[in-house]
């Protein structure tokens, strides 16, 4: 059985077979976790879908993985801070409403 897409066309897209393996595994996990696909697929399995995306050039190895990690960490921190701020505003609103309700009685 031939692997489609072929390993030769895939190795033209990534620097090494090890990078290809890691990229395929990470993308397959993302697809299984519900990530938005970048194209229509011929394959059913997520691992082969990841290879199809790599072959088409929709998924690539990031040129600076440290910068990507830092950007992801910064995004996660910003989301956490936004959630905390929203919770604080909600708690203040609830306290304000309780205070106004106490004055009416």
Automatic annotation (TrEMBL):
SUPFAM superfamilies: RPB6/omega subunit-like
Catalytic activity: RNA(n) + a ribonucleoside 5'-triphosphate = RNA(n+1) + diphosphate
Keywords: Coiled coil, DNA-directed RNA polymerase, Nucleotidyltransferase, Transcription, Transferase
GO molecular function: DNA binding; DNA-directed RNA polymerase activity
EC main group: transferase
Gene Ontology biological-process annotations: DNA-templated transcription
Assigned GO CC terms: DNA-directed RNA polymerase complex
Any coiled-coil regions, as ranges: 73-103
Cited InterPro entries: DNA-dir_RNA_pol_omega, Pol_omega/Rpo6/RPB6, RPB6/omega-like_sf
EC numbers on record: 2.7.7.6
Similarity remark: Belongs to the RNA polymerase subunit omega family.
Assembly behavior: The RNAP catalytic core consists of 2 alpha, 1 beta, 1 beta' and 1 omega subunit. When a sigma factor is associated with the core the holoenzyme is formed, which can initiate transcription.
Database matches in NCBIfam families: rpoZ (TIGR00690)
Biological role: Promotes RNA polymerase assembly. Latches the N- and C-terminal regions of the beta' subunit thereby facilitating its interaction with the beta and alpha subunits.
Protein name: DNA-directed RNA polymerase subunit omega
Organism of provenance: Streptococcus henryi
Source taxonomy: Bacteria, Bacillati, Bacillota, Bacilli, Lactobacillales
């Amino acid at each position: 059985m031939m692997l489609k897409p072929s390993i030769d066309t895939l190795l033209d897209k990534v620097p090494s077979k090890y990078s290809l393996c890691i990229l395929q595994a990470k993308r397959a996990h993302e697809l299984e976790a519900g990530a938005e696909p970048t194209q229509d697929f011929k394959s059913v399995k997520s691992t082969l879908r990841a290879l199809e995306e790599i072959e088409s050039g929709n998924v690539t190895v990031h040129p600076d993985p440290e910068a990507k990690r830092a950007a992801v960490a910064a995004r996660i921190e910003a989301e956490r801070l936004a959630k905390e701020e929203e919770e604080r505003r909600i708690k203040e609103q609830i306290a304000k409403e309780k205070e106004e309700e106490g004055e009416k009685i």
